[in-house]
Amino acid sequence: MRERKCCTECSRRRRKVKECKPRGPGRKCWTCQKWNRECSFVHDYPPALKGLVFELSREEKRALEQQRRHDAWLAAAGGGGAAGPVPPLQPPGAPSPKRPRVAPRPASHEIAAAAARAALALGPRQAPGGAEAAAEAVPPHYAAEVAILAFAAASAPRAPVPARPPPPPGAPTTSLLISVPDMMCAASCGSAVRGALDALAGTELVGVNIPRKLAHVRTTQDASAILGALRGVGFPGSVVSEAPGDGIEPAAAPVAAEFALADSLGLLVEGCNARTGGPCNCGPSCMCHFCPEHHPERSAKLMEELRRAAAAAPAVAAAVTVSPPAPAAPPLVAPSPPPPPSPKPVPGA
Questions:
Q1: For bias kind Pro residues, which ranges apply (predicted)?
Q2: Parallel/antiparallel/unpaired status of strands 214-219 and 238-244
Q3: 112 occurs within a structural domain
Q4: 205-214 pLDDT tens trace
Q5: By Cβ atoms counted within 10 A, which residue in 49, 117, 129, 256 is the most buried?
Q6: What is the CA radius of gyration of the chain?
């Protein structure tokens, strides 16, 4: 006998088939202790229990009903009756098909369209009898009160979205990498950190790395203004690195050495395309903090520090000997074709 799951509700596995108790009136499932009608497992009974009568489980009843429908369809098709499409035979454990709704619920775009039609029929918002006109303009299968509420919400005055303040004239651009240890989630913490950095004047690019608890920003503000903005939203941080961002254009292609170094330091995103040798596909909000394509100023500073450290080390500054070129291989000579086989004598010739 095969080992199978005893019940989908508890998702446990039994050690032996014989440990699953026979299911009769008033008995419960061996594993999940639920009544037989709630147990959704189709049991493989031992041969010694085949002659006994047990209460059918929910999945067994469903399988028998599907088989009965299929047999009825075959009988109608063989007798010349008008048989419809073959009803699907669902395997045990498959979810039941969803029942169609009698009155479909309107989607959000349908409610918005109904509210727009109500607004066109209403005309001026202060016109007398506006609510009655809006209710009459809504199709009959929509809820009139829902459309009126949607129209009221759409026509209410909204606060304008504040534009990003312009940078001060003549301020140099700086790329900062900031550690935010209290940043835990992307929905609340990441949005608060990103919003605080976006609200600063002169901000060009903001990125947040939740697993590493890092935030990078390219702005004309100094480090004290950045840290003060983060403290204002309840996320104190510290500057990890700072590099000038003026006069550096994005690279045409990623540099393999820089990406290998950033990958070894754990500063690349798990799903970054640069891990497989392709170009970085993170976009303008790239979270790979030493990406030469989206953050060339930080990448250039990293390579400059590495070159300075290599020049100071005596082992790296040693002369490199160049090996002589290998001699050229002799040209390949095509082998001569084999001689044709001699004809065999024909007997009786």
A1: 85-97
A2: unpaired
A3: yes
A4: 787 877 778 8
A5: 117
A6: 37
